[in-house]
Structures are given as C-alpha cells and as structure tokens.
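Researcher: First entry.
Model:
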Amino acid sequence: MSSAYAESLYPAESNHLLDLNSLEKPEVTFWVARLDGDIVGCCSLVEASDGTAEIKRMFVDPIARGQKVARKLMDVLEAKAAERKLTAVRLETGIYQPEAIALYRKSGYVEIEPFGEYKPDPLSLFMEKTLSP
C-alpha cells in the first residue's frame, strides 16, 4: 500500500522506495503498527556504516490517520536509534506529503542537502535529526 501511495504522487525517477527484499538485511529494523489486530502503519530504520540511519517506508493507512500512529512509530524508531548510539537519523520525503513533513519538523528534523546516494530532486525534501550522545 505504501508503494502504491508513493507511486500515485511522484514519477518513477522521484520515487526512492526501498524494495521489500532490502528490508530483510541485518542493518534494517522494521516495525508495524496494529489497530484492532490489523496492520495500519509501518516504518523501518536502515543503519549506515557511518553511525547514522535512514527512515524508510514510513506509512500510515488513511483509515488510521489522526490517531497518533505515526508519532508512536517515530518514538519507537528514535528510541532504537538512541539505544544503538546512532549520531543522526535522516530521511527523504516528497514535497506532496505535508502531513509527513509536519510530523518530521515537529519531531525535530531539519532540512539538509541530499545525503548518501541521493541526488538533488525538486520533488524531494531531505531532513535530519541529530541525536544526543
């Protein structure tokens, strides 16, 4: 569902989705959120070799939006990043997702230049939150 949503908003060259097979690696931690037993959200933390990590596949089903599912996923993700003593968490999101951008800003993420293998893209916003040691 998260792939279909992203594909409905952005052209292929601006979609930076991590394929599902890539989620089955040791450096990836993946969470799901459930509501009455049904999966209504997900996110993953992909650790890099430089002491940082990237948020990938952050998605909340429209039926569960407004119920703080994304906030709870972020709390769990950031707690795991702190536990692993990571220095920063980064992300790439699309400019047509104002609710996601607002969540990230409210959570302390600030805009940065493209990182890793990302190239500048007018449809992308790159953000980072520095974690306390």
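Researcher: Second entry.
Model:
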Amino acid sequence: MNWLLVVAGGMVGAPLRYLTDRAVQARHDSVFPWGTFTVNVVGCLVLGLLTGAALAGAAGSDLRLLLGTGLCGALTTYSTFSYETLRLTGAGARLLAAVNVAASVLAGLGAVCAGVTLADVLWA
C-alpha cells in the first residue's frame, strides 16, 4: 500500500514540475533556469512544512509518503539542477552557474526552515 501513495504523489508532482518549469521559464528572457529554481524551492518549502507537521504529530506516515516522498520527490529535481548548472558553465556563463548553485542551496535551506517554522506556528 505504501508504494501506491508514493506513486500517487509522483503522478501529481512530475507533471506539476514540468508545467511549473515551462510557465516560469516562459516569463523570463534569461538563460538562468528560473523554472527549476522555483520548483526546487517550492518543494523544499512543502517538505519543511510537512516535516514540521510530522514533528507536531499533525502528519502521519501516509501523508509523508504521499506528499514528502511522492509529490516532493517528483516535483523537485537535483539532476536537472545539475545539468542546467553544467550547461551554464559550458556556455561560458560561469557566474550564473555559481549563482545558481549558491542561490539554490541557500533558498532551499531557507524554504525548509520557513516551512518548519510555519508548521510550528500552525500546529503548536
């Protein structure tokens, strides 16, 4: 039964990642991968919120499998982030590649912390 929850979350997360990436990137005339950056940060926020809810006893293991492993696992993408960073470097945009790495890590960690903090406020 657990694997069905992961599959169901992934079935939502994967198309959501693709559609969000395309919508965000279409609004930016830049080589910077704004779409991937957005889905990764949003996924970190959702996972932080879910983690905080779990710590407060408000999210059980089924919800964590559905949203944490399934949805967030399919929504976020380390491989695309890595590829796009390498592509920027190969195109001579080394500064943008470095900004992508630093901003992604900092924004992702910040989003996780914000999610845990928000969950603590909501379920304290």
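Model: Note on the second entry: The mean pLDDT is 96.
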